[in-house]
Amino acid sequence: MSGESVPPLARSTLDRAAHRRTDPQWLAEAWERARVLVLDSTAEGRALVRGAAAPPELVLLGSGELPEVPRSVPMFLGVEPDGVPVFAVDGPLPELPGARAVHLRDVGHLLTDRDAGIFTTALALLNWHLRHGYSAGSGRPTQVDEAGWSRIDPAGDRAWPRTDPAMIVLVHDGGAGPDGRCLLGNNAAWPGVPGRRRYSCLAGYVEPGESAEAAVLREVREEVGVAVEGIAYAGSQAWPFPGSLMLGFLARADADAPVRVDPVEIAHARWFTRREIGAALAGRDVDTGDGELLVLPPPASIALFLIHRWLDGWLDGGH
User: Fold this and answer.
1) pLDDT, averaged across the chain
2) Which of 77, 234, 240, 319 is most deeply buried (CB count within 10 A of its CB)?
3) Global confidence as pTM
4) Rounded to 5 degrees, what are φ and ψ at 155?
């Protein structure tokens, strides 16, 4: 059993307190007593954690403890349940005893709800700022405003953070028990590892004028040539690499229908049984059929969350 009721990067305990973003007097006072997360944009947005065992603890500093002047203005993330405000800044990671630099991809699933929410929000904001230094309307340079939640150009043209909606779907045959099957694909853009091949759920961006469910139908048909039905929403999470919102679905398909991959998108696709997926998750070798060993999606991904939902009998329970 996965034990997760929501995707790993969908967890948070922060009150975002959006009404405070335009209150400079409150923000200035809050900064003096804040907890601050330092992210290093030169190291893919890594942050510091302490602790070798799970869950590692995210390192937050007092605003007066920052070792260097940050590269960014403070970004206000919200207020903790104990009333302490939380900010994030872009800057070099300090050298602290027992601390190590980590990527959200690597530890997001191990963090507490509180730390997962802080890290995910901070990284999403940082990546948006890094990509929006100029106004899309005027082409002029923009400056951070509203405590990190907008950017504005000299003429007053304002932009707010955006995320790109994307669907991701676990396609299954509706079968019960260990012989029930799911359809996974190996993306043509993924780097190869000799002797191993990563398979994951099918995914793609939602196009303009399209619903998420319509995107599921289209993407599965385009990528593997299979028609799906019974589309069911399962959950969502941010994927700030650099700025997506992953909308997770489950859908049924006929496992006897021919699989025809689009080689531009998908290098390999095949049906796997629950028995095979369970074995891979248990650390046992599973041959993908051509001598390669099966590698599943990383634990922080919503793809593995969907696989666990199917593997754990969620579908068989009639949900």
Assistant:
1) 94
2) 77
3) 0.93
4) -90, 0
